[in-house]
Amino acid sequence: MAFSADLSDRPIHADLLGEPLVLWRGNGGVRAMSDLCVHRSTALSLGWVRDGEIVCPYHGWRYGADGRCVAIPQLADPTRVPAKARVPAYRALERYGMVWAALGEPRWPLPEVPELEDNAWATVRAGPYRWDCDAARQVENFTDFGHFPWVHPGLLGDPDRPVVPRHEVRTDGNVLHYAIVRPEAPNSDDFPVFANEQSGPPERRSTYELHLPYTIVLRLGWGGTRGMVYFFASQPVGVDRCAGYVVIGRNYNLDQPSRVLREFEDTIFGQDQVVVESQRPERVPFDLADELHLKFDAVAVAYRKGMRALGLAAGDRALSLLPATTRLVMR
Ligand code: FES
Ligand SMILES: [Fe+2]
């Protein structure tokens, strides 16, 4: 995938489940196609877009939005294109400031996040965070409560209060629902990003929707009207590589420079990356017997069960039919 802002009138390259894709803007919107020209397998993403067609940089063959080659300049009649001259074209769409592509028929719609389409909310994007691990490891880390005081002391957790608050996970189709309430970490001087008031013991309610396989909607509330939403999607670049895209919405601090939130996320994701990339195997073991789960790991347990039940666990053939909407394609 890509952030919409990074896809201008130039095509860009993205890898999705090991498939090289080119993303580009055609007349009717964003397009995703194989990034291998059918002639000599050159990257179409090195080419350019003209008149709603993408032009290969090597010999100038032109392709339409459906992946069919429409002109071969070396021919006396460039339009006498053989039927085999085409590349696979995939579904693509743009929403929440991101470009999404699917290699197969989408199994589920994108999550609904009205806050990100509401003008009263400001959005900040962060990432992509490219890690050498399976997208499922990155998703599990995002939802792991036990590590906050250890990996993010002073930012997301307090080492003196390591107990994970009670929470229960409800699974509804491909979506896991759960919430926790915990004492808010203080706003740090470096990153005053949260909305807790200074008076009274601040509490934060975090309400999660984890859309299997790799997308999370997290809503934060402090008991008042101020709200924050984290939209997170991990792009499965390849078996052991992923890229995490973050879009944050909030209805307060509207004038705070995006840089503050972005640097906060860069810090958090940097702290996480070190520990997650050390995990072996690089892919989440979906057999529950393979790692030790305690009660406070309820989300990971539900995630692994759900992924298996839906045929999305690593190794499942179904993984290659990517729910479009659930995968992003990024550069
Ligand atoms: S390799 Fe693309 S036109 Fe020849
Ligand atoms: Fe973390």
The helix tally amounts to: 4
Report the average pLDDT across residues: 92
Structural class of the helix and strand makeup?
alpha+beta
Order of helices and strands: EEEEEEEEEEEHHEEEEEEHH
Can you put this structure into words, describing what you see?
A hairpin with a 2-residue loop joins strand 2 and strand 3. The chain is an alpha+beta fold. The chain contains 4 helices and 17 strands. It is elongated, with a radius of gyration of 22 Å. The longest helix is centred in the C-terminal third of the chain and has 19 residues, at 258-276. The protein has helices at residues 135-143, 148-151, 258-276, 298-309; strands at 2-3, 12-16, 19-26, 29-34, 48-50, 53-55, 62-63, 69-71, 89-95, 98-102, 122-131, 170-172, 175-183, 203-211, 215-221, 227-238, 241-250. FE2/S2 (inorganic) cluster (FES) binds at residues 37, 39-40, 42, 56, 58-59, 61. Residues 37, 39-40, 42, 56, 58-59, 61 line the site of FE2/S2 (inorganic) cluster.
Task: Present the secondary structure layout.
Blueprint: E1 2-3, E2 12-16, E3 19-26, E4 29-34, E5 48-50, E6 53-55, E7 62-63, E8 69-71, E9 89-95, E10 98-102, E11 122-131, H1 135-143, H2 148-151, E12 170-172, E13 175-183, E14 203-211, E15 215-221, E16 227-238, E17 241-250, H3 258-276, H4 298-309
Antiparallel strand pairs: 1-10, 2-3, 3-4, 4-9, 5-6, 6-7, 7-8, 9-10, 11-17, 12-13, 13-14, 14-15, 15-16, 16-17
Bound molecules: FE2/S2 (inorganic) cluster and fe (ii) ion (FE2).
